[in-house]
Amino acid sequence: MSRDNALQLFVLCWLAGVYVWLWGDLSFGNVLAGFVIAAVIMWSLRLPKVQVTGSVHLVSILKLIGLSCYYALESSVAVAWLAVRPGPPPKTGVLRIRLLVQSDLVLVLCCDVLNLIPGSMVLEIDNDHRTVYVHLLDAGSPTAVSKFYRTTRRLEKLFIASFERSRQS
User: Fold this and answer.
1) Of 70, 73, 77, 74, which Cα lies nearest the Cα of 155?
2) pTM of the model
């Protein structure tokens, strides 16, 4: 079985599993309906192939997951404090950062993680220049801006180490 066929079979089973889980009833009819609906979705909503290169490095991925969870928790506390603290609302801003990732898939994954961090939201991705424009909730001080850039650079390095390291070696 080729890699593409194995991936399609996995997606088919995953979609059918989600369908059964949403119905909350594991029955033959639900499983069959899940597979039929999953097949219709996969046939009617074909996605373009994404070039996947590099290799996956488990230790780096575990570090990336841990760091992403830490940043999400830290930012949640900071955003909650900004919401309840006395004083004027924070100054917001749109910041531009050029990422060094090579793969389109890794670029999108990195932007997804940036969106998961409370207080930041990716507004635009310039794929040609690998530039990302991010709205930052607290951009009122040079310290907050430099912290955002440090956080993004650290995440970017972990994404490269997790998925693109074999290119650089």
Assistant:
1) 70
2) 0.70
